[in-house]
Every structure is written in C-alpha cells, then in structure tokens.
C-alpha cells in the first residue's frame, strides 16, 4: 500500500458505535421526478435514523427487505425515526426500481427515499463496501437524534434482515434502560 493510500485510509471516518456517525451527502429519490435532491446526515438531526445499505437494485433478497421496512414505515415514524436505504446504484436505477411493481420484483410504493452512493465513499466509511465488486454488504445502522451511532449490524449478501429485530433494538435504545436478552417493548428494564 502506498503512503497516499495509507493517509487516505487514516483520514476516512469509520463508523463506530458510540461515536458520531460518519457524515454523508448523497443524491436521492426524495424528488422522484427530478432526482435533484440530496440527503445528508444533518437532515435527520433531532430524529432517529435507520440507515441501511443493500447490494444492488433489481436483485432477489433486497426487495424483500425494502418492502418489509416500507410496509412498517409508520411504526418507525411513530418512534420519531426515519428510514433511508443506500446502494451504489444510481438514482436513475433507484427510480426505475421504485416504479416497478412488486409483482415484477420491484419496490413500487416504497415510503422512504433511496440514496445513491456511486462514489462508494459512504459505504466505505460505514465499513460495508465490497471494494472488488463495488457494492455494499447488508449493513444496518441506527443513529440517534444527536448523530451518534448507537447500533450496527453487517451481514453477508445472501441473508436479509429482520424488521421486528430492528424495531425491537430501536425501542430498546429509546428506553434508556438496560435491556436484557430478548427484551421486548413493555418489559421492565434491568
């Protein structure tokens, strides 16, 4: 590795639980017609954020996760939480997929925006970039209203994530208490 590469790696923010989440600004589908709106971490200040990365648009496992999160989006909103999906695809690919019916492996009707990390910088800073493929692993991060990373889980490409578990962890974090194994909302904290 060259000195320049070493310096660049040392300067790159890396996501660490309990530390400020790496900042980002990415093109998004907030305005699906014009595709001219970006999303930034600062846009979510004052709210919880579930930031999740997925490998590619128009694949097999990814739509199951995105539609499952979208179908329960109101539950996240009720907890003062927004959801943002990210892949290394372009916003044009995102728009095409968002306009494809679910019956055709699309994600039409998704209630939250998708962001485009074509530079791979955000995926790298969150530790999910598969550099030789230019795609992201399945990473899910919960960031608190102050921009502090509170939860991180990363798994390989072939296994989808659980919306139930994401909501459970979000509510546990919001409880402010010590939550034992298998804690569920409504249970006492330790």
In words, what does this structure look like?
The chain has 190 residues and is of the alpha/beta class. It has helices at 3-11, 62-71, 73-78, 91-98, 121-125, 163-175; strands at residues 25-27, 38-40, 48-53, 81-87, 114-116, 129-130, 135-136, 138-143, 149-155. The strands form 3 sheets. The chain has a 5-stranded mixed beta sheet. The chain has a two-stranded antiparallel sheet with strand order 1-2. Strands 6-7 form a two-stranded antiparallel sheet. It is globular, with a radius of gyration of 17 Å. The chain starts with a helix and ends in a 15-residue tail after the last helix.
Q: For this structure, what is the CATH class?
A: Alpha Beta
- Please report the total strand number as a whole number: 9
Largest sheet: 5 strands, mixed
CATH topology: Glutaredoxin
| Total separate domains | 1
Shape summary: globular
Proportion of residues in helical segments: 25-40%
Rg over CA atoms, rounded to whole Å, is: 17 Å
Spatially, the strands of the biggest sheet line up as 5-4-3-8-9
- Going by CATH, the architecture would be 3-Layer(aba) Sandwich
SSE class: alpha/beta
Which runs of at least 5 residues are low in confidence (pLDDT < 50)? 1-10
Overall pLDDT metric: 94
Strand content: 15-25%
CATH superfamily: Glutaredoxin
Number of helices: 6
């Amino acid at each position: 590795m060259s000195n320049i590469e070493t310096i660049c790696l040392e300067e790159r923010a890396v996501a660490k639980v309990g530390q400020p989440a790496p900042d980002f600004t990415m093109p998004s589908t907030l305005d699906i017609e014009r595709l001219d709106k970006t999303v930034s971490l600062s846009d979510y200040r004052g709210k919880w954020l579930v930031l999740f990365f997925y490998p590619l648009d128009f694949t097999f496992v990814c739509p199951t996760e995105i539609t499952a999160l979208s179908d329960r989006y109101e539950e996240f909103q009720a907890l003062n939480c927004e959801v943002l999906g990210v892949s290394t695809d372009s916003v044009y690919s995102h728009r095409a997929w968002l306009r494809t019916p679910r019956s055709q492996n699309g994600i039409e009707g998704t209630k939250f925006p998708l962001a485009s990390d074509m530079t791979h910088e955000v995926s790298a800073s969150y530790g999910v970039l598969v550099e030789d493929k230019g795609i992201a692993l399945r990473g899910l991060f919960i960031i608190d209203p102050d921009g502090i990373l509170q939860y991180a889980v990363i798994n390989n490409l072939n296994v989808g994530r659980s919306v139930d578990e994401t909501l459970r962890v979000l509510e546990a974090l919001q409880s402010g208490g010590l939550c034992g194994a298998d804690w569920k909302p409504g249970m006492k904290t330790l």
